[in-house]
């Protein structure tokens, strides 16, 4: 198993309930593809360096995950499909 960090920026127009639901959905994808969520770090609403889909702010989350390498590939596919709510995402393997 490898340690990954998943960075996610969610749309700033989402309600608190919608953001919580979206985060639970992402954590569900992680466990579905053989990963375990070790820690979730919520940074809150921050200003973006540049506009993404006419939005200048977003909610930042950093999720530490223990998983097999195939999880990263499958999670990336799922995140690409969530294009209305997920402004940006990045999956990094720690320790490289």
Task: Summarize the structure in short.
Helix content is 31%, strand content 50%. It is an alpha+beta fold. The chain has a four-stranded antiparallel β-sheet with strand order 2-3-1-4, with helices on one face.
Give the low-confidence spans: none
Output the number of helix runs: 2
Q: What is the CATH T-level topology?
A: Alpha-Beta Plaits
For the secondary structure, the number of strands is 4
Give the N-terminus to C-terminus distance in angstroms.
14 Å
CATH architecture verdict? 2-Layer Sandwich
Give the number of domains: 1
| Global morphology | globular
**How are the strands of the biggest sheet laid out side by side?**
2-3-1-4
For the sheet with most strands, the description reads: 4 strands, antiparallel
Percent range of helical residues? 25-40%
Radius of gyration: 13 Å
Order of helices and strands: EHEEHE
Derived from helix and strand composition plus strand pairing, the structural class reads alpha+beta
Task: Characterise this structure.
With 96 residues, the chain is α+β, with helices and mostly antiparallel strands. It has a single domain (2-93), classed as Ribosomal protein S6/Translation elongation factor EF1B (Alpha-Beta Plaits, 2-Layer Sandwich), CATH 3.30.70.60. The protein has helices spanning 16-32, 69-81; strands at residues 2-11, 36-52, 55-67, 86-93. The longest helix is centred in the first third of the chain and has 17 residues, at 16-32. The two termini are 14 Å apart. The model has no long low-confidence stretch (mean pLDDT 92).
């Amino acid at each position: 198993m490898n340690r990954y960090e998943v960075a996610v920026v969610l749309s700033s127009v989402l309600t608190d309930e919608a953001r919580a639901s979206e985060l639970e959905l992402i954590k569900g994808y992680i466990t579905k593809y053989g990963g375990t969520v070790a820690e979730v770090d919520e940074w809150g609403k921050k200003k973006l360096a540049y506009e993404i889909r006419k939005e200048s702010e977003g909610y930042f989350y950093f999720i530490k995950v223990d998983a097999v390498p195939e999880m990263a590939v499958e999670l990336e596919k799922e995140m690409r499909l969530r294009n209305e709510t997920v402004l940006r995402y990045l999956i990094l393997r720690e320790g490289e």
